[in-house]
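Deliverable D2.4 — example input (structure tokens):
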């Protein structure tokens, strides 16, 4: 059984998709803990599913490095096989990335390397592209620059707003993430070969 720890900063919609998938006894992965960098709305999923949660507030530390060290200490307690950043809106410091990689995944609402950064959906609309996408990557030291594990295109439709397009991308992100976790758990995907 693949042990997952999911880190969130917001509502945790990708987290919810993993929790729903792992509700199936046949699904070969389980979320063993949920972490956040703030009092995130998505921590309610932890309570609903009876999963331990923890918060490592960024502002409680003198430096990003000290915060990252504490976060890694918390993660190690859960003996996770895979750490997933799911709407986690904070860059991990280099030591944390090195401690966790390549078993450190992130989802992104664009077809990377197109539109990296925090405003990917807005940037895609501003660029006037006909399609964008969703990606799952291994986290590296850059911003959305790690090795691509999986991705899929999403069309930009006439009249799309940022919210409408983002909602469609999120559906694809959730499917990709669940499929990637399934492939890792079943031994069909080895992250060490991609890193």
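Example output (designed residues):
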């Amino acid at each position: 059984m693949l042990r997952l720890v999911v880190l969130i900063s917001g509502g945790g919609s990708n987290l919810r998709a993993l929790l729903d998938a792992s509700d199936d006894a046949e699904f070969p992965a389980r979320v063993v803990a949920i972490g956040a960098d703030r009092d995130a709305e998505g921590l309610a999923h932890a309570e609903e599913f009876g999963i331990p949660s923890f918060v490592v507030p960024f502002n409680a530390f003198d430096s990003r490095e000290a915060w990252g060290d504490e976060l890694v200490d918390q993660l190690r307690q859960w003996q996770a096989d895979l750490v997933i950043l799911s709407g986690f809106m904070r860059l991990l410091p280099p030591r944390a990335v090195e401690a966790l990689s390549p078993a450190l995944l992130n989802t992104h609402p664009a077809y990377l390397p197109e539109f990296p950064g925090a405003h990917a959906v807005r940037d895609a609309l501003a660029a006037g592209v006909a399609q964008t996408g969703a990606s799952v990557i291994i986290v590296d030291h850059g911003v959305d620059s790690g090795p691509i594990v999986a991705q899929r295109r999403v069309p930009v439709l006439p009249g799309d707003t940022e919210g409408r397009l983002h909602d469609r991308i999120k559906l694809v992100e959730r499917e990709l993430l669940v499929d990637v976790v399934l492939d890792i758990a079943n031994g069909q995907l080895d992250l060490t070969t991609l890193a």
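The first strand starts at residue 2 and ends at 8.
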